[in-house]
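Many introductory courses stop at the sequence. We go one step further.
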Amino acid sequence: MLDGAHGGFDINAVLHGKTTPVFFGSAANNFGVEHLLKGFLEYSSEPLPRKAKNGLVPLDHQAFSAFVFKVQTNMNPLHRDRVVFARVCSGIFYRDMPVYHARLGKEIHLSDPYNLFGRSREAITEAYPGDIIGFVTKLDFRVGDTISIDPLLVFEEIPRFAPECFAFLHNTLSSNYKPFRKGLDHLLAEDIVQAFFLQNSGHATPLLGAVGPLQFEVMQYRLKDEYKAESRLEMMPWKILRWLKSSLEDKDLRQRLPQEAELATDDQNRRVILFSTDWSLQYFSEKNPLVTFFDTPPVDT
């Protein structure tokens, strides 16, 4: 299988983000971990400038900036901690420095930064471009967030792909609603699945979107294992989601939708339409040339 699927190894393609090396092993059994770490050192590049919405940010930019690429809950189950991982992209980070959270639009303090390796944590006082810092926080952080001392600096988010499976997740015990809702919010922040909000919906939870059903199984397992919250999955009939740009108001869009299609927004309040079939999407596109569709979130220009 590997001989047939393997497309050859090209280090230039790796460095340009076109392919990703795959290592096989087991962290639980400590098999292949050293091979992975050595491979990372061998095949990865030095820190590079990152693209922001207003241009490329060089490493020697005077303003500290960092990009959140991972959020992990329950790394210490006894404390229900939530660790945010960010890559320093420019400037120098100092412990307790005030920084600006671009999405929330407010100033925050990161008082407990760490270097993390497996279960070990080492407190740090400063970090430089290319360093990965982790910090425990109760603030609303999500994958793709920008933190910086420059309020105008906002990095482009990690590309999202249109989900193909949709479901609502229901709490099965009214007495467990609080841990169910807390766990759902925490896991959504990790980007295990995407969240969408149907207009005029009577559901208490968002519509969940995934590329494959395994993502729903992972979420349900973690809700039960980490938050002791049982859940019931209600699969929905939509198979296609597209982000859109249009001058039409929501009311006009809803009147034009084919049967079973729905108008919604994602977690960044960008409009999307859900379709049950390819034919339905194609029919709507032909009848509504003023609506432009995207299979990834459109970039504002």
